[in-house]
Structures are given as structure tokens and as C-alpha cells.
Records
---
Amino acid sequence: MSNDAQPPVADDRYTELQNSAEFVELRRRFRRFVFPMTAFFLIWYFLYVLLSVYAKEFMGSKFVGNITWGLVLGLLQFVTTFAITMYYARWADREFDTRAEALAQKMGGAL
């Protein structure tokens, strides 16, 4: 048996994977989801911070009873975080994970 018949080196497999059309499409789908979602959350977070610094009167004003707008918006930060996480998990299960698994199988199993 000659040395020419050896399986490709692991680095070659990774390079082949990165250059495949399927991987490029998978990466594009991931970025199309993650970048806008990250931008949305960062804008929402920094809006809260800026309101806390520059709109103290608004943030300290009563929403209902002794609950202020600052508290409501602060709690909505947590709600938003959990909602985005759940949305990402559902999206990944539906759109991303199955394609990634199929690509891994095509490339010869777990890389």
C-alpha cells in the first residue's frame, strides 16, 4: 500500500469544509439571524442606559403605584434577554442545527 492512499489530514478536511458552498450558506444564515438580533438588543440596552443617565426624571416617574418607568424598563431587559434566547433556540432547532448536522455527516461525521 502506498502513502498516496492516506486519508486527508484533519486540517485539509477543515479547509475543505470552510470552502464548501453548504458551509458558506450555513454561515450566511447564521449571520443574517445573529447580527440583527445582537444589534437590536444592544440598541435596546444602550437606550435603557442613556435614559437612566439623561432622562432621570422620566425614569423616576411613576408608572403605576410606586413602580417607576426605570424599574419597568429594567425588568423588560430581562424579559427581552429570555425572549431572544428562546427565539434563537427555536430558530437554531428549525433552521441551523439540522443543516449543520447534515454538513457534518457529509464531511464524514463529527469533525
---
Amino acid sequence: MYLVAVCSCPVGIAHTYMAAANLKKAAQKKGIEIKVETQGAQGVEDEITEEDLKRCDACIIASDVKIKNSSRFKDIPTMSFKVNEPIKDADAVIDELVEALG
């Protein structure tokens, strides 16, 4: 399974990167490949490419603000969360998405 994710918070500093790190760690534990784009104070980092979109199974949006270029996910199963949810329990976020995919 290959997931993509976008993390962003209003300030774009701590929570954005904590959520991204936790999602990466939780996915790795589960044997799931993930690419996490951050949209923060530094701008867009680790941007999800067209190739990523073609091969991904689903997308996680962990954000308290409107993310940039969200229309690129219109044809991809996507689940949205508040940015603090993967900070508190990234395993539950990934489990919920995987379960929804069936």
C-alpha cells in the first residue's frame, strides 16, 4: 500500500512537522509506504508529484487550514483530520483510513 499525506497548521511550524513525523513513523511500523508533504512556514516541502498521485492508494489530509492545490486529490480516496489527530495517535489515523478502504 502506498499513501500520500499533506500536513499543515495555521502557523506552519511545530504541529505541521510533528504530524508528518508521526504519520511516517506509524506507516513504517505497519509496513505501509507513505510520502508526506508539508505546507508550512517554509512553504511546500516534499511536494507530492504527479507520479505519487498515479500510484497512491489513498490520501490523508491533516490540516486546520485550507491546503494548497487540494483539487489534485479529487479522484483519490481521501480522509481529512485535524492536524493534532496524527500528533496524538497516528496509528489510529492510518488504521481508520485503511479500514475505510476495505
---
Amino acid sequence: MKARLVVFPIKGRTWCFSSSIDSATVASQSSNAPSTFKDLWKTIFSSPRKTNNASDGLKVELVVDFAADKMNRAWTNLEKAPQGTLKNKIHWVGLKLLSRVKPTEIFFKSIPKELKCVEITYPSSLNPRLVRRRLRHIAFR
């Protein structure tokens, strides 16, 4: 999976970060997650009784992916709600709460773990070492 990170300074120490991920790979990944709780249950408990740390980690990732997929679908339904309905008001409150989250946190959460290649695009006026150091600093923070 490949991703492109675009980095550019806005003013002083304020920088803008954006990511784009190959959409074909993202679509194939979301199809791997079970769509119903019944499918999730079967997938988790159909494996042999002997467990090790690696298989436990995969099961946890399956549950996390399942929950994230459900939340994304629910958020999309809230977005599409007609104006003035309770769902629309819940969506508005959610947006207000999300506005309090740091943009860099949202940026790094949007990057999947399974990346093989990351292409970083930045203006030629910036020092490449400075860009790498800034990304590393934000990631560790």
C-alpha cells in the first residue's frame, strides 16, 4: 500500500499536513472486515483452541476494524440526515467535539498501519531533514 503525504508551512511554525492513500487498496481492505456481528463471531472463534500472541493480536485487530467500520457507517448515516432532525443535531454535536481534536492527531490516525511506501511531498525551499524531523516529532508526540 502506498501513501502520499503533503507537507507545507503556512506561517512560522504552523504547518499543514495532508495524506492521500491509494483508494483501490483501501477498498480491498475494508472488504476483509466482517460486516455483521455473526460473521465476526464466527471468524474469531472458528480458529483452533491453541492460541498464541500473534493470533490474539489478529483477533483484536478484527474487532477494532469491525467497530471502526460500524462507526464509519453510522457517522455517514448521521451526515445524510435531514436538517432539523435529532440525527442531524447529533451530527452537529459530533462535529463540535471533533473540532477540539488536534489536526495532527487526526492526520496520523488517517494513515493505515500496513503502509509499504510513503512519499513525502514538500516545497523545495524546505530542508528535507527538517521535514522528516518535524514528522517524526509529531508522530512520537
